[in-house]
Amino acid sequence: MAQLPLGKSLALGLIGGGVFQLSGMPLAWMLGPLVANLLGAMAGLALAVPDRLRSLFIGVLGLTLGARVSPELMSHLSSWWLSGLLLLLGVWVSTLACAAWYRRCGFDATSAWFASVPGVLTAMVVIGERSGGDPQRIAVAQSLRVLLVILILPPLYWLLEGGTSTADNEKVVIGGLWLVLLLPVLLPLGKRLRLPNAALLAPLLVAMAFSLGDVARFSPPVWGTDVMQLVLGCAIGARFKGLAPRVLAGLMAQSGVATLIALAVLGVFAELIHQLMGVPRDVAFLALAPGGIGEMALLAVALGLDPIFVAFHHLLRMIVLMLMLPVMVRHFRPRSPQDKAH
């Protein structure tokens, strides 16, 4: 019986992916399943994608990204310090702006802050609750931001490109598929080593090492990439099961404004990166977009942009936010009656 929610989710994903594929949109096999599962969840269907299956395909994405790292690319890392600095400054400003908006929507100060920090969703929910915030509000706001960014950016890029995909149309050279067999070892190893986003980063680092050493380069067939997008899209959409349509609509409106605020603020910093470093606007904007590292890297691959530049900046944001969590906890921790008396 446990397989029924997964079967329903994947079936809806296939239908949604097929419809979006016919429309010619980029990332069709992620957006289609995502929207189909979101609608199914709102309709009350029992949908689910197990965490193990989701992690497995995030691992496949990590292998794909790691294979794109070359010695030439590594030589550019030292020149990305300015864009990294602008990214962190942009995250700070956008968090302040979004927190101010959520306060206007009735959020308490702690919930508003942890709902506004772009990234490390699970940690923000857990630490936000420990600090006295509302975990449901934080979780929904964080999830909806990622969802809305994924739904907004592909059509936006598609329209700016005149309705054509910018993805590389060269013939895919399939290779290194045996690296998938390492995932059952790499995923638990990454967790044991306490790597941030271990399911993505552990395979990425191994694939990068193999690529730099010219041992193997992971390159899946097109249908394999489509399956990866299908599962990840279903996982995101099915996350919203149990929310009544009216409640979700209200939360979507609040999160929609917050997402637009974050995109506008970070867009300004992306323009600074473009002007000061010569990085293409679309690459700079995607590197700073307030979405998840896996989803944004996957979008970069689908659009033919620079996925390593994008993934590097999202990973930097994630690591810095994780390092800042103890500071956030001290600042927002609930005050005891003795503290309040002073």
From TrEMBL:
Database matches in InterPro entries: AbrB_dup, AbrB_fam
Alphabetic keyword roster: Membrane, Transmembrane, Transmembrane helix
Membrane spanning stretches: 27-49, 56-74, 80-102, 109-127, 139-160, 172-189, 252-273, 285-305, 311-329
GO CC annotation, single: membrane
Short name of any one Pfam family annotated for the protein: AbrB
Entry superkingdom: Bacteria
Transmembrane helix listed as a keyword: yes
Biological process, per Gene Ontology: regulation of gene expression
Name assigned to this protein: AbrB family transcriptional regulator
Organism of this sequence: Cobetia crustatorum
Taxonomic placement: Bacteria, Pseudomonadati, Pseudomonadota, Gammaproteobacteria, Oceanospirillales
